[in-house]
């Protein structure tokens, strides 16, 4: 909190234990954590620390959360951004924002820059020219090529559509590590529920395994939403803890929302 007062960037308290499931991805990130925490070890071996990682997969699956956890595990400054906020009407504005972002991150290193919706600036370039977008993307490439690997700045990009991205962004030395972040399977859904009920009073009759079975096709964000909705219902119903009825209603509500959006057929 003191950091905020001094206008310092956030150093998140999020840890890997807050991210349920995604075991393979977390295993891969353990090496990145070691890179950030012990750069000399790698430099003395002549190894280059990776600069860019791409998280791709459906929405709400923990991409932002994982990036925060990577910063939290390494006590890095966290710079969240969204690709869409760089795309402006006036040519050069986006590029300038990219430059400023990297300047700040280098100053506060070790840093994790997180660019959500990176496809908004990193989509394949077309023959039809779009000066503002092209300049913004070029600036991002320049920044990624520009900082030396002795400055510990890791850039994480997130997208729902890996296939949309420009090849130039994926070249070695840029976003050359790609990690798929998918929807949770039944075991991961159970783990995610456990994370989100940890600080909530739950009736002993609530069977988490059963909740996990009934939420096929849902993302971590949906499950977190269910736990929160159930808690709100318990307050509304004057209950002393969250019971099966509240969870049933919360699941129904989320399913109804999904069907309305026609996002997933459950
Ligand atoms: P988007 O693509 O829409 O930006 P995202 O993949 O970045 O989504 P997050 O913002 O990380 O998704 O997830 C939203 C919320 O859902 C998290 O803050 C967290 O509460 C919950 N959540 C998602 N995945 C997990 C997970 N694996 N473990 C625990 N909580 C999760």
From TrEMBL:
Enzyme kind, highest EC tier: hydrolase
Domain of life: Bacteria
A biological-process GO annotation: cell division
Keyword Cell inner membrane: no
Location(s), subcellular: Cell membrane; Membrane
Similarity annotation: Belongs to the AAA ATPase family. In the C-terminal section; belongs to the peptidase M41 family.
Protein function: Acts as a processive, ATP-dependent zinc metallopeptidase for both cytoplasmic and membrane proteins. Plays a role in the quality control of integral membrane proteins.
Name of this chain's protein: ATP-dependent zinc metalloprotease FtsH
Species per Swiss-Prot/TrEMBL record: Geosporobacter subterraneus DSM 17957
Gene giving rise to this polypeptide: ftsH
